Amino acid sequence: MTQKKKAVVLLSGGLDSGTVLSIVSNSDYECYCLSFRYGQRHSIELEKAAQIAKYCGAKQHRIIEIDIAQLGGSSLTDRSMEVPKSRGNLDEVNEIPNTYVPVRNLIFLSYAVAWAEVLDCKDIFIGVNCYDYSGYPDCRPEFIESFQRCANLASANAVTGKGEIAIHAPIIKMTKAEIIKKGSELGFDYALTHSCYDPINAKPCGKCDSCQLRLKGFREAGLIDPVEYAD
Amino acid sequence: MTQKKKAVVLLSGGLDSGTVLSIVSNSDYECYCLSFRYGQRHSIELEKAAQIAKYCGAKQHRIIEIDIAQLGGSSLTDRSMEVPKSRGNLDEVNEIPNTYVPVRNLIFLSYAVAWAEVLDCKDIFIGVNCYDYSGYPDCRPEFIESFQRCANLASANAVTGKGEIAIHAPIIKMTKAEIIKKGSELGFDYALTHSCYDPINAKPCGKCDSCQLRLKGFREAGLIDPVEYAD
């Protein structure tokens, strides 16, 4: 039996990163999943992440505590700010929503590179997506490409000649419907994923931007969302 | 009175970052100091950082908890590894010492960018230095330049046109002696700084690489290190 390559996979417990883990674990990789507790209001995301890692047969799942909340600036971590219900037609949005956590993906990817270096792993996967949600600057392809260059300059591998790290964003140019179709083809169980910004009794609200994007995606994919919504 | 510009200054409690804070606080900046608790064996560094921030009149000092230690890979955070006493002639060293924490500066700078964004601050200062210690890849000028490009792609400022972030590394091309001379000219008190990897009863050992570099720097600067060493 040949040894599988290692992959560090960022896993939030949401639909996008769950699909990415499904894609990677169905490829020739042994998966090391990395999640973050960063003052999210709801720990349900991390419970889902653990279930998804197990479901996909991940080798390891680590949860890193980061106290980004004390820096402020986001309604997802700052309890004094209200989560927006809907910002209207999502296609017309070009401002940055206040659910934005400053440079979150920059921080998450930096930890992923640290772990990859320790594991002697060359492949990092992240479930960013640039089409459905244009408001987050650190979801853009040019950011991912720039981060890869920067990470290889920061890493000991760059000095010791152990090889370069690649940052993979396999769903970055897929629509939500394409993502859902892809995961469904691979047999991924979307009932394990959590997307809602503001759940009611642990059930998704069905009203926030994230729920709306998800429901629209399932509709366009011609599939039923297996998750039970609050009334 | 005109309002001072804001600066986020990474502050470890060591000689280099202390000098940088001295330089920045003597310029036209209001300083927001950022330190990290990342499983260091000795909390003395963070106590020193707090004293230095106060001494230099910093506006704020935040300490972020990061649990990089669970990822392993460094004798500075992994208690099962031994800290090397001396690796011989430091000028001849080109391997990466096991005191290296994987991509530490990448992680620290990422948090700095997050805070800078929240503060609406455009200037980040870091005390990396490429001459005295060539073993750390994330202390090189090409890493700092690459990180600045990456940070501006990650940041909301890049989208909203609020202006770009600059990563400043004012001592990156200075020798340890030049750094010490500069700080001394500015009236900085090096008794407040801590450099030792392996202190004995809270006093620096005088033997580890970091102590040796420091002592060599004071010797070459023609100055006396005001810190009291262990016997």
Which SSEs are present, and which pair or pack?
Two copies of one chain form a homodimer.
Chain A: E1 5-10, H1 15-25, E2 29-37, H2 44-55, E3 60-65, H3 104-119, E4 123-125, H4 141-154, H5 156-160, E5 166-168, H6 176-185, H7 209-221
Parallel strand pairs in A: 1-2, 1-4, 2-3, 4-5
Descriptive overview:
The structure is a homodimer of 231-residue chains. The first copy, chain A, is of the alpha/beta class and 231 residues long. Chain A has one domain: Rossmann fold (3-Layer(aba) Sandwich). The first copy, chain A, contains seven helices and five strands. Chain A has a five-stranded parallel beta sheet with strand order 3-2-1-4-5, sandwiched between helices. The interface between A and B is large, with 45 and 45 residues.
Brief write-up:
With 231 residues, chain A is an alpha/beta fold.
Can you summarize the main beta sheet of chain A? Answer: 5 strands, parallel
Strand content of chain A: 5-15%
* Helical coverage of chain A, percent range: 25-40%
Widest sheet: strand ordering of chain A:
3-2-1-4-5
Series of secondary-structure elements of chain A, N-terminal to C-terminal: EHEHEHEHHEHH
Global mean pLDDT of chain A: 84
Keywords for this entry:
alpha/beta, Rossmann fold, 5 strands
